[in-house]
Structures are given as C-alpha cells and as structure tokens.
Amino acid sequence: MNQSPRHVAIIMDGNGRWAKARGYPRFYGHIRGTTRVREIVREAHRVGIQALTLYAFSTENWKRPAEELTVLWKLLRKYIRREVIELKRNGVRLHMIGEINRLPQDAQRELRAAMEELKDGTKLHLTFALSYGARTEIIEAAKALANECVQGKLTVDQITEQEFEKHLSTSFLGESAEVDFMIRTSGEKRISNYLLWQSSYAEFDFPEVLWPDYSVEEFRKSLENFKNRQRRFGGI
Ligand code: IPE
Ligand code: IPE
Ligand code: MG
Q1: Which amino acids bring their CB within 6 angstroms of ligand 2?
Q2: Kind of pairing between the strands at 51-55 and 7-11
Q3: pTM of the model
C-alpha cells in the first residue's frame, strides 16, 4: 500500500523515563516532550495528514502527584499560547476530546479561546485527548442512545455502527474518525484506554524511542513503515 494515513493517533509516552535516565525530575521530560509536539504537528501538516489526535492526558493520569499535573497544565497553556499564530497560518483546526470540564478553569478558558480562534482551519484537524478514556466515551455514547430510545426518537433496531459513532467524541471528524495509524512511543505495547472503537482496524507502530526523542526523522520512519502495510479489513 502506498497511501499516507488519513488519521494518525499518537500515544506520547516516555517523558518520565527520559528525564529519569538523565537524573532530572519528571517534568523535564514533559518540557522536552512539548517541543516534540510542535515538530510533529508541523510535519503532519506538511505531509498532508488530515487528522492528528494526540493523547496528552488519560482519565487514569489523574492519579499522578499534584505537582506533576500542575506542570502539565502549565505546559499545555504555554504550547497553545505560543503556537496559535502558526497553527492559524497553516489552516490547523484545534479540537479537544475527553472530560475537558475537569481541567483547571484557566486552562479550559485558554483552550476554548484557541479553538475559537482556529475554527476556520480546514487543512489539519489537530485534536488533544485530555482527561480522555475510551471506555467512558463508549459508555457515554451508549447512554445517549438509550436516552433516544426511551424518548422514542430511535428504535432499538435503528442502533447501527453509524448511529453509535455519531455519539463518540470524534464524530466531528466524520469518516476520518477511523484511526488508520496508531503510534505509541517508548516501547510499551498497549493501548491504555485510547480510541478503542476508532482504532478497530488501525495499523500499529511501537517505536522504541521515548517521546522526547521522537524526532521528525523518527516520525517519517513510522510513516514509511505504515506505507508497507497491507490492510485487508477482513478481505483477502
Ligand atoms: C507520557 O509520558 C506523558 C503523559 C502521560 C502525560 P509519561 O509521563 O507517562 O512517561 P513515563 O511513561 O513515565 O516514562
Ligand atoms: C498513556 O500513557 C497516556 C498518555 C500518553 C497521555 P501512560 O503512561 O499513562 O500509560 P500506562 O500507565 O503506561 O499504561
Ligand atoms: Mg507513561
């Protein structure tokens, strides 16, 4: 297959280990990781990827120490503030999925303002998954459908995959919501509650490098790797 993936999802993992290996506190890894986000977004735009969905914080990550969380929200705000002009110039549209209401108020405010500022972007859909968990997302969709049935807007027989997908947090992506390529850095080979429904037929890549070392060069290698895959979707 010689096509580029339309929707790439990345689990940006390994910041803490990167810092630890250098004798730094964990947040150093997050700082360096933010630089990588900037580079990878730029490259995704350059190669014409339509949707890039970055796992920045899972529902399970709330278990981390408060100091680490504070750093993460601060870095997120800083990233948004610094990048919004370039993102706009490049026609990037910004989205968030996950329980955004659980984020600190000031972070929410800035994120919403940036999404508004970038709402006319059409080239790349850049989505941050924040306080995101796929099981919660699926349960919410099931509840919404159950409600529609109770209210008589839908019959049980009308519950199809298409109908279900309308209630997932990625529905704004339309057909591109389906993940073509899922990348997880740091060598861990698990999905950690990320986009379970959307990645049913995704190709996977598990580069050994930690996220702060995941350069544009590494990203290109991953994309090359994708091009050599044969996707059969159950056919022959
Ligand atoms: C990923 O890196 C970033 C977030 C989860 C926010 P980690 O912080 O999980 O780094 P490791 O896995 O501990 O090395
Ligand atoms: C997954 O990484 C979430 C993000 C990268 C944001 P974790 O480091 O939290 O996942 P586990 O705990 O190793 O599965
Ligand atoms: Mg981790």
Answers
A1: 11-13, 55-58, 60-61, 188, 190, 192
A2: parallel
A3: 0.97
Distance CA 125, CA 114 (A): 13
Catalytic (active site) residue 2: no
Mean local confidence (pLDDT), 149-165: 98
Annotated active-site residue 15? The verdict is: no
**Ligand 1 atom 12: residue of nearest CA:** 14
User: Separation of 205 CA from ligand 1 center, angstroms?
Assistant: 18
Pairing of the two strands 124-129 and 92-97 = parallel
Ligand 3 center to 102 CA (angstroms): 21
Environment of ion ligand 3 (residues, CB < 5 A): 13
Q: What is the per-residue pLDDT across 29-71, written as a single tens digit (0 to 9) for each?
A: 999 999 999 999 999 999 999 999 999 999 999 999 999 999 9
Regarding the domain with residue range 7-133+177-227, which homologous superfamily does it belong to in the CATH classification?
Decaprenyl diphosphate synthase-like (3.40.1180.10)
In tens, the pLDDT along 175-194 reads 999 999 999 999 999 999 99
Take atom 2 of ligand 2 and give the residue whose Cα is closest.
13
What are the structural domain ranges in the chain?
7-133+177-227
- Helical segments of the chain, H only: 15-21, 26-46, 66-89, 105-117, 134-150, 161-165, 216-227
